[in-house]
Amino acid sequence: MMKRKLYITLLGLLSTIMTVAVPYCDVRKFSITDGLAANTISDLKQGKDNLMWFSTWNGLSFYDGYKFHTFRDNPDDIDVLSTNRILKIEPSHNNNVWCITYDHQLYVYDTHFCRFFAVGQKFNELFNIDLRVSQVYPMKNGATWFTSEDGKYIIRSVGKTFDERNIELIKVGEKGLRSGNVWYIHQDSHGREWVLTDKGAYVYNSKFPSQLPFKWIRWVGEDVFLATEDGKLAKYDLQNRLTMIPMPEGVTRINELKNTGYQLLLATNLGVIIYNPRTFKFDIINVQSPSQPLAEVKKIYTDDFGMVWAFTDGMGVTLINPKTGQKQWLFADQDNPMDRTTCESNFITQDENKTLWVVPRGGTFSYFDRKAGKLVPYLLRSNSSGNYRIPKITKYVLSDQGILWLTGSHDLTQVVFKYHPYIINKLDVGEDEVFSVNASPDGHIWTGYHNGVIQVLNASYQRIGYLSPSGQIVPQQVNFAETGIYSIHFDIKGRTWIGTNGNGVYLIDKMQVRHFTYDANAPASLPFDKVFDIVADRTGRIWIGTYGGGIAW
To answer: What superkingdom does the record give (predicted)?
Structure first.
């Protein structure tokens, strides 16, 4: 009975809104007790086959949707790995997994043979080097790039890694490579492979007409846009022509490039800059506000509604409409700091329902209520393990299935985004809690409120009217009883039983209303006037549960 009361009370708390859809998270925490290789997760990636892979300080694991599978060197087996402590992973184009160990040795886990291969050792023997790998970059065309810790060379491999004819060592100073300190390696839609370094861009098997240290690259249509950290912007076309684009005065730093359709977005020291390649026009949007005084934008994100989210080193996050230039500073935090979920980087993502989830700078894990135009803090805690809270996000991946995988100080967390659709009706006059709900035999929904009102809805949740003291349904809001309606029951004879909080029981039978109350002088009367529940057993007998007077029938 108490569970039922709590459930109905929760519905009552929501009855102050008309129609809402509430996002929520189904959170599950994994650890070594669930089969994970270790509780410290160093990296997490999704492969082309949609499997989730996790590198740990005690081996490599993948999750098949049901359980974890772990691979590592065992004490009673032949050692292949220099250490089971894996630092980074990168799934390959053929569903194998590249692994960089804690001492920067290179291995590949072959999912066909179910074993590790010491690829770095093969490279060392082939080129007479001592390779310490920094990063692995698999390309869509099947090529894979490897960068070195010392920055003296990079390696490119195609096809089977052990085929010497398809492995190429490119030293600094050769083939146009000016530096081995690589920021990133990309492949564009035309198949060109871009190596961006601190001393200039290198295009594989092509000459690039500039020594500018481009760090950012973005494709808009057929053109490639490149930007340096110190505020220079250029366009590279299919004719291999590089055209410098004059930036607005005062731009001295570019922190990121994005685009919305054909428009180019730049995170700069002046704020968010929008460049239209068709009109050659720049628009500068200053993100400063009384709550956030910093101008420099460090990260930008575009959502599915074409809106731009800008992060600075200041508090919160700024929402920008790129079409109108309007901006809004947003922030959300938990009342209790122990309920807060923070992030070391600027966390922002969207789920399959187009709900945007974000951790504003200095705030907590939240979702954006687009109708209300505000961030709503969300308490991120697991459904098991004693409501384990997620205090921090250090690394995260949103899978192709729309599942968020994240890790904090320890352990692994899976977050499945879901949606609660609610159709909720308000009273015509005032607001109050709902304490009872039941459906009549004709499909109507009767709702009893704490103030004594009974509202009647049809099967489509449209309001029919209100129950009057005479037992008739009338269009205007009236009180059926003087106290709260705590129970509504329809018996097999078509009668309606209504229990109240202090005013006894009402029975409506063929439009006649009878009233039963407690009478100290009548032993057969109702034992108490506070009626919390009314049910019928298999024989049709009515049982009445009271608060303080026991059960009557």
So the answer is: Bacteria
- Compute CA distances 334 → 13, 138, 389, whole Å: 20, 41, 13
Q: Which helix (H) or strand (E) holds 398?
A: strand 395-398
3-state secondary structure 223-282: EEEEEECCCCEEEECCCCCEEEECCCCCCCCEEEEEEECCEEEEEECCEEEEEECCCCEE
List CB contacts of 488: < 8 A, sequence separation 6 or more. Answer: 436, 437, 438, 446, 448, 454, 496, 497, 498, 499, 534
Q: What is the pLDDT of residue 386?
A: 62
Q: What is the CATH number of domain 434-552?
A: 2.130.10.10
CB 392 within 8 A of CB 342: yes
Q: Is 283 helix (H, G, I), strand (E, B) or coil?
A: strand
Query: Cα 348 vs. chain centroid, distance in angstroms?
Result: 7
CA 163, 168, 174: angle at the middle one, nearest 5? 170
**Residue 340 corresponds to which tokens in the numbers above?**
């807060």
Amino acid code (one letter) for 534: I
* Segment 162-183, tens digit of pLDDT: 677 899 999 999 999 999 999 9
d(CA 153, CA 273): 36
Structure tokens at 201: 């861009």
User: Three-state SS for 458?
Assistant: coil
Q: Which residues have a Cβ under 8 Å from the Cβ of 397 and sit 6 or more positions away?
A: 44, 45, 46, 52, 404, 405, 406
Write out the two tokens for 95. Answer: 């569903």
Q: Give the pLDDT mean for 441-447.
A: 92
> What does the block give as tokens for 363?
């705030």
Could you tell me the pTM of the whole model? 0.75
What is the residue extent of each domain of the chain?
A: 434-552
Q: Which residues contact 324 (CB under 8 A, 6 or more apart)?
A: none
Q: What is the pLDDT of residue 20?
A: 56
Check: CB of residue 170 under 8 Å from CB of residue 153: yes
C-beta separation of 200 from 214 below 8 A: yes
Q: Which residues contact 143 (CB under 8 A, 6 or more apart)?
A: 156, 157, 158, 187, 193
* Spatial distance between the Cα atoms of 267 and 255, rounded to a whole number of angstroms: 5
Q: What digits encode the pLDDT tens for the residues 83-93?
A: 999 999 999 99
